[in-house]
Amino acid sequence: MPLTMKGGFNTYEIPIGILMLHTMFPRVRGDIGNAATFPFPVRYRTVRGASPDRVVLGRTDPALLAPFIAAARELESEGVKAITTSCGFLAIFQEELAASVSIPVFASSLMQVPVVARTLNGRQKVGVLTANKSGLTEDHFRGAGWSTSEIPVIVEGLEDKPEFMKTHVGNGMEADFGIIRDEVVGRALEMVERHPEIGAFVFECTNLPPYSRDVALVTGRPVYDIVTLTHMVYTAVKQRCYVCVCDRHRG
Question: What are phi and psi of 53, to 5 degrees?
Fold first, then answer.
């Protein structure tokens, strides 16, 4: 039987598309903007003008919705099977982005909070570590599919951590990732010391996964981030082939 395959795209086998903020700061492995973070191909699309201050500081600029939708549609037209973003604050656009395309969209790692909360024992809470606590609102949580009235969480930010802020919010051209690691791990330790009821972490910020392993080791809590969510979605859209007949459905 001949192997047939449908066309319609210029390139193939790129399962995940990533909508990127317009930044220039360095991105170490583990960061969503470093393609070596993933063991599968990803395709990036930068949304021009979407600077960190327009997304993370204060209310996410609603004028950015239209260019994010346009970029999502471009990624879909190029054949990606699912789309994510480089900032968890874009949860506020989740509904509109998902409605604009016909493939799955997961705009924020915060979408994991309801699942993570259900894994805990009822006395424990989810600790949310974010780039900017004051900017993360109920609108963002509702965009991710939940609210604090349904799922109480412990939220802390990194807005007082100078190296993190200089790099990831201030768009610094050089970064000392050793210092950033200490800032992130130190804040996570402070969170569990003040709130021992934290049973797991969800990192809002997509620049934090390089430190997820360290946080998990020093706190003894599991850590969920945009990388764990992207891996989950990848396995859904590119299911492992167990029998050879699957080859006829490749695309």
Answer: -70, -25
